[in-house]
Amino acid sequence: MRILLIGPPGAGKGTQAKFISEAFNIPHIATGDMLRLAIKSGTELGKAVDKAMKNGQLVADDIMVALVQERLRGDDCANGFVLDGFPRTLPQAEALTRAGAELDVVIEIRVIDEEIVRRITGRRIHPDSGRIYHVIYSPPKNAGVDDQTGELLIQREDDQEETVRRRLEVYHKQTEPLTAYYQDLSKNNLDHRPQYFYESGRGSIDEVKEDIFRYLDALNFSR
Ligand code: AP5
User: Fold this and answer.
1) What is the spatial distance between Cα 182 and Cα 7, in angstroms, rounded to a whole number?
2) Is 173 noted as a catalytic residue in this protein?
3) Is 131 a catalytic residue?
């Protein structure tokens, strides 16, 4: 089961990808998390991508393609994966297709920009696990701390309003065209073509989850 979640920053990709990964026991591959870990660990990759991420710009395609191709070779990806945050440009999507990573389902989550700003500026994360909260929409049991470990939650450096608006611009210009790319692929006469599912991300976290699982269950993927 190879699933791609696509949508603007803050649409809820990471939130929904975690539900899918747990329900279907497949890895959640979040390129943003991989890059943040590299920065935290001070690796060469981390040093190379730090500035672009802080400014809300995209990291270079060749770096991202190499990173994801390596990750998809992992044994844990043999039964599938949920991709979240990659591909983000046409060259990345074409590289993924060329590498033979045949996607079964592409799920687009769409949310209007002003709601995105509300969601992202209220987001808090637990840096070690990647668990995601929102101060209003999905608050932790105790304010400011992770439910499972009791450790402090943080706000991502790129979650300030000005940077969020820049990330949205980048999304509309460079990533949104991929929705047409995958819709075209889904209509192609290929042996293996992805199903395309459009989800309006306007509902609550649980409503969006229910819609997505109703759709996936109808495709008869085993849980
Ligand atoms: P990345 O970490 O991938 O960030 P993003 O795509 O901008 O997405 P987000 O993580 O911000 O949002 P999300 O859709 O996962 O939303 P979430 O579920 O957290 O990338 C960061 C940076 O890394 C990029 O800017 C770039 O520099 C670099 N990068 C990464 N991949 C790259 C690539 N392939 N190429 C080049 N550069 C790359 O939800 C957001 C908030 O809303 C949360 O607080 C959540 O609780 C809440 N929420 C979720 N759903 C709902 C709902 N239905 N109702 C109410 N609240 C909700």
Assistant:
1) 12
2) no
3) no
Q: How far is the CA of 78 from the centre of ligand 1 (A)?
A: 25
Expressed in angstroms and rounded, the spacing between residue 189 Cα and the centre of ligand 1 is 32
Contact 38/45 with Cβ under 8 angstroms?
yes
User: Token digits for 5?
Assistant: 């979640």
Q: Of the candidates 222, 175, 221, 223, which has an alpha carbon nearest to the alpha carbon of residue 195?
A: 221
Q: Is 15 near ligand 1, meaning CB less than 6 Å away?
A: yes
With a pLDDT cut of 90, the percent of the chain lying above it is: 90
**pLDDT value of position 190:** 76
Q: Which of 148, 150, 124, 147 is nearest to 135 (CA)?
A: 124
Residue 223 a catalytic site member: no
The per-residue pLDDT for range 107-145, each reduced to its tens digit, is 999 999 999 999 999 999 999 898 999 999 999 999 999
What is the rounded average pLDDT of the residues 61-65?
97
Phi, psi torsion values for 15, nearest 5 degrees: -60, -50
